[in-house]
Amino acid sequence: MEGIPHPIPRTVDEVFNDFKGRRSGMIKALTTDVDKFYQQCDPEKENLCLYGLPNETWEVNLPVEEVPPELPEPALGINFARDGMQEKDWLSLVAVHSDSWLLAVAFYFGARFGFGKNERKRLFQMINDLPTIFEVVTGNVKQPKDQSANHNSSGKSKSSAKVSRQSETPGNMVKMSPPSKDEDESGEEDEEDDEQGATCGACGDSYGTDEFWICCDICERWFHGKCVKITPAKAEHIKQYKCPSCSSKRARV
């Protein structure tokens, strides 16, 4: 992870060059280096983040321990969703979060170094002239000709590892926390009765209405989200959730 150097004057061009370097590194991770990236995002590890560095490299690492961090932090726990989604959908999701992080870092620098309205507008226009990481990873947009010389690594990455985009909203939503009492009137009493008697497949504790739960689509056991390291936000992007036990069984086969 790249920490912020000691405060020095920053120009729009310098911030944009920093943006381009980090962007190129992240594109490499999601395209030409995708096999290495996939392997490093082991769901058995702790919360991991994808970092793009100004020197056009990337790394998968734990978030910084310092609070608040010196730089905005990228999406946390990208490894937990890896085995619960199709690879191309997972890469697209990481790409979207990477685009958001790059913008956050660029405009953090802009705020820190006192960019005015015109400088912020110019910075955004320069950034907006580049395809997003999501567009490059999914192959939805071609690199502009005038940028091909400066972004050879990005262009090669896109052509060598195109990922066709499917709907960002999963068609079959993962079964998440058991419904609340308010849903009794919707005709789901029988299903709720089963869930009320459920116990967590990881810790064995009983269902509680104030906790987030998720159901494995393979063995149909319920788990506390915290026990399997799945948050409601992550669950929204999972088409088919497989608990750690079912995931490991599949890997052995």
Would you mind describing this structure in some detail?
The chain has helices spanning 12-30, 34-40, 87-112, 117-128, 133-138, 145-148, 152-160, 189-196, 232-235, 244-252, and strands spanning 49-52, 58-61, 213-215, 222-224. With 253 residues, it is mainly alpha-helical. It has a two-stranded antiparallel sheet. A two-stranded antiparallel ribbon has the order 3-4. The chain starts with 11 loop residues before the first helix and ends with a helix.
For the biggest sheet, the summary is: 2 strands, antiparallel
How large, in whole angstroms, is the Cα Rg?
21 Å
Distance between the termini: 36 Å
* Number of H/I helices: 10
Oligomeric form of this entry?
single chain
The H/E string reads: HHEEHHHHHHEEHH
Report the sheet-strand fraction. Answer: 5-15%
**Structural class of the secondary elements?**
mainly alpha
DSSP, total strands? 4
Order of the strands making up the biggest sheet: 1-2
Low-confidence regions: 2-9, 143-149, 153-174, 179-189
Dominant shape? elongated
